[in-house]
């Protein structure tokens, strides 16, 4: 079933000839009303022109009406030409929609260091049809992804729809992927910007596939107010659930992955430390490899926790894998074959209790397989 966007939003996609596959690779998301917005971008210092431009627009404090996205080319490390090409892409989208260029955000994803064929974008945008549905947009922004990633929720009669892409070069230092969240709820810009970072920290910043933070990635939230006001606390709960579902999808679709890993940490001294500990386990190449081999080698989990920066005492820590208690301040006897069998599902949960406080957090990752190496060994050849 097609995914309908919230009131006032339209989206579409077209083939611009950027992806070698010939698939749709240019996407446009537009609001019929000026939208409040919140934004978070990669902390990689090699950030692309689209990220630098987005930060300037965000600092300017104006409202937003559209986002134009190209896939297949990161337009990163392309010098002064890349800056001009990013601006040309924004102007072409603004012309297509009849908007001021400062109301159009840009995003790019794909190969680094290759000039953007912006002339193809300028030629293709007039052919792009907009509809009230998110599906074509969600498909066109993919690169090595195997699955489209969308989620939705309702709050007070308003709707929230999220679309994301991400499969590789993913590690938490903002939102290492692309995520576009839209709602017809009426929310002041100040409130959006005050709360969005917390949602990002709990969800997108808790995804890790390979330990590499991308140069291009971002998360943006647009609220156009077409429905009306909603309770703010309920809105943040619903938005976090949408973002969490997208984060899980990204981790599950990690390059070469065969299973999703969910790490839940309880009993941390602070929420931030709980997130550190969960990310450390989800990011460990040793544990990710053990996960692929269905090897309940809990020592790798313990080692990752001890290196996470969270307050930690191995004599107090408890580790549970797929409901099976493996460690509780000391090594415990357990049925290794039963534990290995329990790891063979498509989702594996690691539960840790640090017994340092009351805070909790979670992270989302995947196993590390030969498939990841194959994909990235031949990415540009």
TrEMBL record:
Q: What does this protein do?
A: Catalyzes two activities which are involved in the cyclic version of arginine biosynthesis: the synthesis of N-acetylglutamate from glutamate and acetyl-CoA as the acetyl donor, and of ornithine by transacetylation between N(2)-acetylornithine and glutamate.
Any one GO molecular function term: L-glutamate N-acetyltransferase activity, acting on acetyl-L-ornithine as donor
* EC numbers for this chain: 2.3.1.35, 2.3.1.1
Q: Which GO terms describe its cellular component?
A: cytoplasm
Question: What top-tier enzyme class does this entry carry?
Answer: transferase
Site (described: Cleavage): 175-176
Annotated residues that bind substrate are located at 143, 165, 176, 255, 376, 381
What family name appears in the similarity comment? Belongs to the ArgJ family.
Q: Which InterPro entries match?
A: Arg_biosynth_ArgJ, ArgJ-like_dom_sf, ArgJ_beta_C
Q: Tell me what organism the protein belongs to.
A: Thermus filiformis
Q: In which pathway does it act?
A: Amino-acid biosynthesis; L-arginine biosynthesis; L-ornithine and N-acetyl-L-glutamate from L-glutamate and N(2)-acetyl-L-ornithine (cyclic): step 1/1; Amino-acid biosynthesis; L-arginine biosynthesis; N(2)-acetyl-L-ornithine from L-glutamate: step 1/4
NCBIfam families from the entry?
ArgJ, PRK05388.1
Catalytic residues per the record? Answer: 176
Please give the biological process terms from Gene Ontology that the record holds: L-arginine biosynthetic process; ornithine biosynthetic process
* Keywords, sorted A to Z: Acyltransferase, Amino-acid biosynthesis, Arginine biosynthesis, Autocatalytic cleavage, Cytoplasm, Multifunctional enzyme, Transferase
Q: Where is this site: Involved in the stabilization of negative charge on the oxyanion by the formation of the oxyanion hole?
A: 109-110
Whether Transferase counts among this entry's keywords is yes
Reaction equation(s) it catalyzes: L-glutamate + acetyl-CoA = N-acetyl-L-glutamate + CoA + H(+); N(2)-acetyl-L-ornithine + L-glutamate = N-acetyl-L-glutamate + L-ornithine
Under SUPFAM superfamilies, the record lists: DmpA/ArgJ-like
Q: What's the protein here called?
A: Arginine biosynthesis bifunctional protein ArgJ
Location in the cell reads: Cytoplasm
Q: What binding partners and quaternary form does the record give? A: Heterotetramer of two alpha and two beta chains.
